[in-house]
Amino acid sequence: MNAVITGASKGIGKAIAIKLAKEGFNVAICARNPITLEKAQADIQAVNPDIQVLAIPVDMGKKDEVIAFADRIKSTFSPVHILVNNAGLFIPGSLHEQEDGLLENLMATNVYSAYHLTRQLLANMKANKKGHIFNMCSTASYTSYPNGGAYSITKFALLGFSRNLREELKGHNVKVTSLSPGPTLTASWEGFEAPPGRLMEPEDVANLLWSAYTLSEQAVVEEVIMRPMLGDIS
């Protein structure tokens, strides 16, 4: 069994990769930073020496690199049973104050990367009538908030992509799930002094993904919103 997780050198992506490795999946991961990616590869391999871990440095904001990553997967990692579109950038700020070009850059990483990679890997899933695509959305995909800015726009767009994909793939037996976690203990929250236990753990998201994947063939979780027990952080 093979899984592809983008943006998997740390945080939620890495937690998902480790979970799937423990469950016996070969995993292909990517990230921009080759140093953190190499460490993630070693950590994932350590939890299950019997699986293959393919780690490729990729800037998911660049279409040509996304396509090259997909080509590598198709030649060495086929078929793909789980695709997790997790790569993303979080840059808050008011729309009228954000620098010119930020929306385009965030759209490329947060939305277009999922669009291009999914399109490249979808033919095999449809032919096999098997596969599960997880799109890592956000509570920001549903709720507008101050300083959401360009980031929030991209997360609304990713949820729209995911919903449309779900409708298109119903008849092909390929599942699509939108996972939308709220504040989670990742690099995006570095520097934020939250009380202990206030943020969710990346492993919470990984465990929820696994629960959704292991449902019966005739069942699919379309959308899930996760929040800390005490709610969002304002």
From TrEMBL:
Any matching Pfam family: adh_short
Keywords for this protein: Oxidoreductase
Matches recorded under SUPFAM superfamilies: NAD(P)-binding Rossmann-fold domains
InterPro entries, per database record: NAD(P)-bd_dom_sf (IPR036291), Sc_DH/Rdtase_CS (IPR020904), SDR_fam (IPR002347)
CDD domains for this protein: SDR_c (cd05233)
Family membership noted in the UniProt record: Belongs to the short-chain dehydrogenases/reductases (SDR) family.
Protein name: SDR family oxidoreductase
